[in-house]
UniProtKB/TrEMBL annotation:
Pfam families: GntR (PF00392), UTRA (PF07702). The keyword DNA-binding applies. Residues 11-79 form the HTH gntR-type domain. The lineage of its organism: Bacteria, Bacillati, Actinomycetota, Actinomycetes, Streptosporangiales. InterPro entries: Bact_HTH_transcr_reg (IPR050679), Chorismate_lyase_/UTRA_dom_sf (IPR028978), Tscrpt_reg_HTH_GntR (IPR000524), UTRA (IPR011663), WH-like_DNA-bd_sf (IPR036388), WH_DNA-bd_sf (IPR036390). Keywords: DNA-binding, Transcription, Transcription regulation. It comes from Microtetraspora malaysiensis. The keyword Transcription applies. This is GntR family transcriptional regulator.
């Protein structure tokens, strides 16, 4: 017997199934990591054919709420974290805002010569020594972000002697070296995780992720830090909010309001 009776009318059957499944997920009928019942069982639940069920599941998969794997079934995913581009708070602040327990694990810390990309980003001659840090950002015991950070070694002598797991890097740069980050320029692109990054993020190699490359600048527009951050595509999404400026109206010098 159907748990939820679909109604004939203007609302398509697959959308009714979608709405009820969304409500069930919101109310915790299935938790992250749970496997949903097979499609035929869901069809009996709604008293419909397989087609509306499959279309509803496809829509929830596109929203990132479900993952469908051939031969294994359909699984509930964790809600994606909303990460605002240009967020001025620390990773720990962001995770606590989402009610999660943050942690940082230092994977690598060393001095190495800069390649062309890093040198250009930091306005250094190629081959100049840089500090390289690789830090894994963890929330509730699950790896979410992998940061690969490059800093001019001459400017930050002794940085590697500090605790880079429990201390904020930006706080250390400001308090110990007088290097205050005031702005950043960032670029975002989708990538497929290579074996190294996938292993640290506990993901299969080739899994989609977001790569954020950025340069942080001081008050005199001097580059302080170049960073590559790999963000799990199944656990976070990026958002941006900005002002819309329209060109002045001819002859007035005034802009239209949006």
């Amino acid at each position: 017997m159907a748990r939820y009776r679909l109604e004939s009318g203007s609302t398509p059957l697959h959308h009714q199934v979608y709405l009820d499944l969304s409500t069930a997920l919101d109310e915790g009928e299935w938790r992250p990591g749970d496997r949903l019942p097979p499609e035929r069982e869901l069809a009996r639940r709604y008293g419909c054919s397989l087609i509306p069920v499959r279309r509803a599941l496809d829509e929830l998969t596109r929203e990132g709420r479900l993952e469908r794997t051939r031969g294994r079934g359909t699984f509930v995913l964790h809600p994606r974290l909303e990460v605002e581009i240009g967020h001025s708070g620390s990773f720990a602040d962001l995770m606590r805002m989402h009610g999660m327990d943050p942690d940082t694990r230092l994977i690598t810390s060393r001095i190495e010569p800069s390649g062309e990309v890093v040198a250009a980003a930091l306005a250094l001659p190629p081959g100049t020594h840089t500090i390289y840090l690789e830090r894994l950002r963890i929330a509730d015991g699950e790896p979410l972000f992998l940061e690969q950070v490059y800093l001019p070694a001459d400017r930050f002598t002794g940085l590697l002697d500090h605790d880079l797991e429990r201390n904020s890097l930006y706080d250390l740069l400001a308090e110990q070296y007088g290097a205050v980050v005031v702005r950043a320029r960032e670029a975002i692109e989708p990538v497929l995780l290579r074996a190294h990054e996938a292993h640290l993020l506990d993901q299969p190699s080739g899994r989609p992720a977001l790569l954020v490359e950025g340069v942080a600048f001081g008050p005199e527009s001097e580059p302080i830090e170049f960073t590559r951050s790999y963000i799990r595509g199944d656990r976070a999404r990026l958002s941006f909010e900005g002002s819309i400026l329209r060109p002045p109206r001819p002859g007035t010098g005034e802009t239209d309001t949006p």
